[in-house]
Specification:
The complex is a heterodimer. Chain A has five helices and five strands; from the N terminus they run H-H-H-E-E-H-E-E-H-E. Chain A is of the alpha+beta class. Chain A has two domains: 41 residues, Winged helix-like DNA-binding domain superfamily/Winged helix DNA-binding domain (Arc Repressor Mutant, subunit A); 82 residues, Alpha-Beta Plaits (2-Layer Sandwich). A four-stranded antiparallel sheet of chain A has the order 3-4-2-5. The radius of gyration of chain A is 20 Å and the shape is elongated. In chain B, 36% of the residues lie in helices and 31% in strands. In chain B, strands 3-4-2-5 form a four-stranded antiparallel sheet. Chain B folds into two domains: 41 residues, Winged helix-like DNA-binding domain superfamily/Winged helix DNA-binding domain (Arc Repressor Mutant, subunit A, Orthogonal Bundle); 75 residues, 2-Layer Sandwich (Alpha-Beta Plaits). The two termini of chain B are 13 Å apart. Classes of the chains: A alpha+beta, B alpha+beta.
C-alpha cells in the first residue's frame, strides 16, 4: 500500500518527469538514498511503468490530428481482432482504444496536412475491415495533455 | 526537421524509456556516448523531443475506470470558450482536454476509482461546468499506444 510520502513523490514526479532523483528527493524533503529506494520499490510493485519521451509531431511536420470513432459490424465474430490487427499496420495511427458505449474503437491518427490526410483516410483507413460506421473529430487545440492521475 | 534512420531508432527507444543513460542508448544504436548526446540535443532544439511523461499504472493506483467524454456546449457564442476551458482543466480527474471540430466541441479523458466515483465526477464537476450541453460517455475497455510514423 502507498503511504503519504509515496503519493507526494508520485505527484511531484508526475508534474515534472525530467527531475533527477536528487531533485525529486529535495522537493519531497527526503534524502536522495531514501527517495531512490522508494522509487525502486514503486517500480518493482508495478505502480510506475516508465518515463517516456513525448514527441511533438508538429515539429516533424504532422499538422493534422484526427480522432476517428469507429462502429464495427458485430455480426462478424472476429471483427474487433481483425480491425485492430489491420489498424496496427498503419504507421500514422498513434492510439487504439476499445470502448463500451456507442463507439466500439477509436483511432488517433496524424497526417502532415489535409491532402495527406485525405489520401491516408481513403487508402488506409476506409479499407480497414468490418467498419459499419465512422465519425471524425479533428483536433483544433490540445488544452490539457499531461494525462496526470489525481493521486 | 528531417530524421535519418538512427534518429528514428533513437526516438523509439526514448519513447519506451526516456530515463536510460546516453551510454546505454549509444550501445543499442552503435553510437558513441557524445554522438548520442548530440543527436538528443538536436532533437530537443528542434522541438521534436518536447518533454517527458511519467506513465503510471492507473489500475494499480486504484483508478479502475477511464471514460472518454464528448461534450457539446449548449450556448455557443454566448458562453466563452475560455471560461469552459479554465474550469474543465482545473478538474483533477480530467486528464486531457481537446478542442475538436465535428460532432462535439470538446473531448475529455476522465479517470475515476469506479463507476460510482465516475458518476459523482460527472454530476458534480462536469455537468455543472459553464455552458455544458450534450455529453456522450464511452467507457474505456483497452488501450494501445503505437510508436507513430518513425
Amino acid at each position: 500500500m502507498l503511504d503519504d510520502i509515496d503519493r507526494r513523490l508520485l505527484r511531484v514526479w508526475q508534474d515534472d518527469p525530467g527531475l533527477s532523483v536528487a531533485d525529486l528527493a529535495s522537493r519531497c524533503s527526503l534524502t536522495t538514498g531514501k527517495a531512490g529506494r522508494r522509487i525502486e520499490s514503486l517500480r518493482a510493485a508495478g505502480y510506475v511503468e516508465r518515463v517516456e519521451a513525448v514527441i511533438d509531431w508538429q515539429a516533424l511536420g504532422y499538422h493534422v490530428q484526427v480522432s476517428l470513432r469507429v462502429t464495427l459490424d458485430k455480426t462478424e465474430a472476429r471483427a474487433f481482432d481483425e480491425f485492430i490487427d489491420a489498424a496496427r499496420l498503419v504507421p500514422e495511427v498513434l492510439e487504439i482504444q476499445t470502448f463500451l458505449g456507442r463507439v466500439d474503437v477509436r483511432l488517433l491518427v496524424i497526417a502532415q496536412d489535409l491532402p495527406h490526410y485525405q489520401t491516408l483516410y481513403r487508402a488506409q483507413i476506409l479499407t480497414l475491415p468490418h467498419i459499419a460506421d465512422i465519425e471524425s473529430l479533428m483536433t483544433i487545440a490540445q488544452v490539457k495533455s499531461q494525462e496526470a492521475l489525481p493521486i | 526537421m528531417t530524421l535519418d534512420d538512427t534518429d528514428m531508432a533513437l526516438l523509439k527507444l526514448l519513447q519506451t524509456d526516456a530515463s536510460q543513460p546516453t551510454s546505454q542508448l549509444g550501445r543499442k544504436l552503435g553510437l558513441s556516448q557524445p554522438a548520442t548526446w548530440r543527436r538528443i540535443k538536436a532533437l530537443r532544439d528542434a522541438g521534436v523531443l518536447s518533454g517527458q511523461r511519467l506513465r503510471l499504472n492507473a489500475e494499480a493506483l486504484g483508478f479502475g475506470v477511464t471514460v472518454f467524454l464528448g461534450v457539446k456546449l449548449a450556448a455557443k457564442g454566448r458562453v466563452s470558450l475560455e471560461d469552459f476551458e479554465r474550469s474543465v482543466t482545473a478538474i483533477r480527474e480530467v486528464q486531457t482536454v481537446e478542442h475538436v471540430l465535428g460532432l462535439y466541441d470538446y473531448r475529455l479523458r476522465v479517470v475515476a476509482r469506479d463507476l460510482a466515483d465516475f458518476e459523482r465526477v460527472l454530476r458534480r464537476r462536469i455537468m455543472t461546468l459553464p455552458g455544458v450541453g450534450n455529453v456522450e460517455a464511452n467507457v474505456l475497455l483497452s488501450e494501445e499506444r503505437r510508436p507513430g510514423p518513425i
